[in-house]
Amino acid sequence: MSKSTSAATHGVNTRLAHTGHDPKSFHGFVNPPVVHASTVLFPDAATMVSRDQKYTYGTHGTPTTDALNAAFNELEGSAGSVAVPSGLAAVTLPFLAVLNAGDHLLVVDSVYSPTRNFCAGMLARFGVETTYYDPLIGADIESLMRPNTKLVHTEAPGSNTFEMQDIPAIAEVAHAHGALVSIDNTWATPLFFRPLEHGVDISIHAATKYPAGHSDILIGTVSANKQAWPAVHKAFGMLGICAAPDDSYMTLRGLRTMGVRLARHQESALAIARALEDMPGVARVLHPALESFPGHDIWKRDFCGSSGIFSIVLDVADPARHQAKAHAFLNALEIFGLGYSWGGYESLAVHANLSDRTIALPPKEGPVIRLQIGLEDVADLMADIDRALAAAKAA
Asked: So which residues are the signal peptide here (predicted)?
């Protein structure tokens, strides 16, 4: 909660230290309490019927989840936010909130692959048709809009290959057709991109990543503007997918240091990405903050920073050797862990699976290795990558 009307003018780290923070409400204690709740008692039968009190049941909110939601409202500039049990739950909640049987959904082809699975495996069963579009489409998304298109789902940058989208142009077209726009903003966080200021209606985060920040929490957040919030809030209540109190508390705790952690992630990732641009064995570096990246101009226009995850394309001419070379690279790593997710303190690497793409096709030069740059020393990480590149060359 803002302590004064001037809080919006404070620096990022000041805001992160104090948002979702009201010690006067909790006897002066700095952090909000962790409230484990299912049943909430009412003072009398009339109040039980009217529900005219702040808290009514654990799934509808507690002081712990309210503190986290308040923090995201301030960071996003949103009308309302909810915390849910995972990043995927954060993606699916707006879809279920907005879409009805017979509706049409537009999804960027470089989307987080579990989102695609949900569209094909769940929404299709309910009579929602999904069309995938080129992440570079911009205002030309006009050609894909239909009378029954109700939602355009974006992701900038795209998963694994980091294509940038012209979000304001897409939002303008979508709104002209009466559709809402959602975005998976996990890569940038609200510190580096504030989607609702660029025409987006619903901002989604796998808060598992940078907000929680320590590879030990599964949690997601959904923040919406005034137009979209009523539907999101209603669906949240009906689905009962509330985040656990301990996870909410730990995510709020992680937010306090997210600014300084992101600064380190950004600095290290950019240093490594720039070094890899000229490295033998690397065909391309896929990082929006690099001047060589095709979407750099959009990133520079709309974003104010970059996080710690990007990809490299190994230089492997023979497609039959892509997997063997990728595995040789990964198996030679000693500091980078082999694991999914990202945003934690440790560096990770994975061979990106792009086989589900239909429009934003995989790079032809070789396999894509996604690198999460953690908080380790850059020199040590570069030595690890050098060792991996040598192993890939020898394989």
From this structure: none
Question: pLDDT, tens digit, for every residue of 20-51?
Answer: 777 777 778 888 889 999 999 999 999 999 99
* Residues 264, 201 share a domain: no
Do 208 and 240 belong together in one domain? Answer: yes
Chain segment 109-154, per-residue pLDDT in tens: 999 999 999 999 999 999 999 999 999 999 999 999 999 999 999 9
3 state SS for the chain = CCCCCCHHHCCHHHHHHHCCCCHHHHCCCCCCCCCCCCECCCCCHHHHHHCCCCCCEHHHCCHHHHHHHHHHHHHHCCCEEEEECCHHHHHHHHHHHHCCCCCEEEEECCCCHHHHHHHHHHHHHHCCEEEEECCCCHHHHHHHCCCCEEEEEEECCCCCCCCCCCHHHHHHHHHHCCCEEEEECCCCHHHHCCHHHHCCCEEEECCCCCCCCCCCCCCEEEEECCCCHHHHHHHHHHHCCCCCHHHHHHHHHHHHHHHHHHHHHHHHHHHHHHHHHCCCCEEEEECCCCCCCCCHHHHHHHCCCCCCEEEEEECCCCHHHHHHHHHHHHHHCCCCEECCCCCCCCCEEEECCCCCCCCCCCCCCCCEEEEECCCCCHHHHHHHHHHHHHHHHHC
Residue 3 pLDDT: 43
Confidence of residue 5 (pLDDT cuts 50, 70, 90): very low
Same domain for 153 and 39, yes or no, is yes
Range of the domain at 167: 9-254
Q: Are residues 369 and 327 in the same domain?
A: yes
Handedness of CA 286, 290, 292, 297 (dihedral sign): positive
Look at the pTM and tell me if it is higher than 0.85. yes
**How do residues 62-110 score in pLDDT, each as one tens digit?**
999 999 999 999 999 999 999 999 999 999 999 999 999 999 999 999 9
pLDDT at position 8 is 63
d(C-alpha 87, C-alpha 320), whole Å = 34
Do 107 and 142 have their domain in common? yes
